[in-house]
Amino acid sequence: MRSDAPRRRGPALDVAVVGGGMVGAAAALSLARAGFATALLEARAPAPWSPSDEVDLRVVGLAPSSIALLDELGVWTAIREARAGPYAHMHVWDAATGASIHFDAAAEGRDLLGYIVENSLVQWQSWQALEAAGVRRLCPAQVSGFEVFEDRVQLALVGAEAETLSARLLVAADGAGSPLRTQAGIETQGRDYAQRGVVAHVSTERPHEGTAWQRFLATGPLALLPLADGRSSIVWSLPEAEAQRVMALDEQAFRDELGVASDFRLGRITGSTVRAAFPLRLQLARSYQAERFVLLGDAAHAVHPLAGQGVNLGLRDVAELSQTLVAARDDGVDIAAAQVLRRYARRRRSADTLDALSFDALARIFGWTSPPLVAARSLGVRLFDRLSPIKRRLAEHAAGL
């Protein structure tokens, strides 16, 4: 909302970040470490993470670009030493034809492809580092509305010590349902997959071999991701009705069906935790910016989990935004000037859209059931696995290199 009211005194802060999840906390840390006066507003503080707790059902596959950013922010070593599952291989195969693609870190001249880490661990370590970095934490705090002036954004707060807060720039990292995105008048586009991702941690007869396994079935992809404790985290994409049926199975029946779905690649499923399920949707904001306002992470884009890239895309948003604002400051330009925010928005929306639509295309292609199309897909997968330069280029892109 734009106001033509007379100009008042300058803003209290350079940047106000709303949303203290993994991406929001990383953004606040990155901007504060770059020398910007930064506040992070969050409705609810994260629960303390403890190594004695059960492994969080929500995990992320951190790519090298994300690891480099977290290392730069001073939190990666603590995350890695706490509980992180390294993987050096990724094996993807088609249930209908057996055609497969194998990625090997050594073939790319790297030690690892990435790490599987709990969302809550990344968020907790980042949250713990905020105060030392000089970030002003406002929690519990919610933004009930905001008003844009010539030189600042004025935020109306609920639950915070102060009723208002001003900043040169407002950063919305408040999730896929972003209230701030709605208040800024930014619409979204996409589609509902009419699927749910069923998640759990499972023990298997054979070790996971430091490999991320992914099998494409007609109903959707099934991923088995290597955890630090030797188990695997599953993300099983299923149509709504099928997901409900699988969620209702007793443990033995669930283990049996999961074993069949995974082609017993790791042998029998010998144990399972509780399960959870979340809806799958493709969603892209039509713009990543408004006046003195930008979107980050899920507030900007929500993608299919088959490639495990959602959080990595969000952390690349963080890196791009920080670099853009630093360059503007060094050039003596208002960090929230329209041309500055357009530069960030253009670069990241272009990259995120390409990735999101690529993941969507993969989901569609592996959903083909017509025999001629299945045969064509099989041929394409087998050729791709043999085309080393193209496969290497894709691996480098996924790594953020």
UniProtKB/TrEMBL annotation:
SUPFAM superfamilies: FAD/NAD(P)-binding domain (SSF51905)
PROSITE patterns, A to Z: UBIH
Transmembrane segments: 12-32
Keywords assigned by UniProt, alphabetized: FAD, Flavoprotein, Membrane, Monooxygenase, Oxidoreductase, Transmembrane, Transmembrane helix
Co-factor(s): FAD
Involved pathway(s): Cofactor biosynthesis; ubiquinone biosynthesis
Key word Flavoprotein present: yes
GO biological process: ubiquinone biosynthetic process
GO MF term list: 2-octaprenyl-6-methoxyphenol hydroxylase activity; FAD binding
Gene3D superfamilies per the UniProt record, alphabetical: FAD/NAD(P)-binding domain (3.50.50.60)
Assigned GO CC terms: ubiquinone biosynthesis complex
Source organism superkingdom: Bacteria
Domain FAD-binding, first and last residues per copy: 13-349
Subunit structure: Component of the Ubi complex metabolon, which regroups five ubiquinone biosynthesis proteins (UbiE, UbiF, UbiG, UbiH and UbiI) and two accessory factors (UbiK and the lipid-binding protein UbiJ).
Family that this chain belongs to: Belongs to the UbiH/COQ6 family.
Name used for this protein in its record: FAD-dependent oxidoreductase
Species annotation: Dyella soli
